Amino acid sequence: MLFVCTANISRSPYAERRARQVLPPDAGAGITFASAGTPGYPGRGMDPAMAELLVARGGDASGHVSRAVDEEILRRVDLVVVFEFAHHMRLLDSFPRHRHVILGLQQAARAVRALGASRAEDAAASDAFDRVERLVSVAGQNSMSYDVEDPYGRGARAAQACADEIDQLLDVVLPFLAGREVPRLAAPPLAVPTEGTRALRPAWRLGRSAPRRALP
């Protein structure tokens, strides 16, 4: 499974390393993970903002060196997962013979959800190759509306939003491909207090200006 973003320094290495956390090579799922970029900027380490989030979430950012997608790489993969519609189109233009194995991450997650109740039965009765074929066969059209936005150079908040979205989408796709439940990557949603226990928030947190401190 090859993750592909623009430069192979932010989204794709983050997804690759997070996927390895829950499905390492010795997990017996028959799936390995890699990443590359299109057009790619070879020879660079991982973006510090995404690397910091990866490490904070238990992953390992060390040793990553960015690379560009080429025919040799694609010849050795069974599923290519992109983060933007532009990546999808670029790969189709450059490597049309591999068009049947290219999906957007959001597109893949929607396909798994579309399988609904049948997905557990499909997963249990097939191997990883069959599950990839099943996923590709039911995937709808990709679209720019499914893009996972590039956080590069946009600050910590954008990086966290991107990482959160990738984790949530991997939580949908990876169990299906593995044919079993896997540890969740996304943090559980915060519990919403009931009406009787709702804590009062300061008025300034609701959009009003924070109170100024009195001078000594």
Structure description:
With 216 residues, the protein is of the alpha/beta class. The protein has a single domain, classed as Rossmann fold, CATH 3.40.50.2300. It is built from eight helices and four strands. A four-stranded parallel β-sheet has the order 2-1-3-4, sandwiched between helices. Mean pLDDT is 86; it is low at 197-216. Residues 2-172 form the Phosphotyrosine protein phosphatase I domain.
Shape: globular
Structure class:
alpha/beta
The number of E-state strands comes to: 4
Low-confidence stretches: 197-216
InterPro entries: LMW_PTPase, Ptyr_pPase, Ptyr_pPase_sf
Protein name: Low molecular weight phosphatase family protein
Domain Phosphotyrosine protein phosphatase I: 2-172
GO molecular function: protein tyrosine phosphatase activity
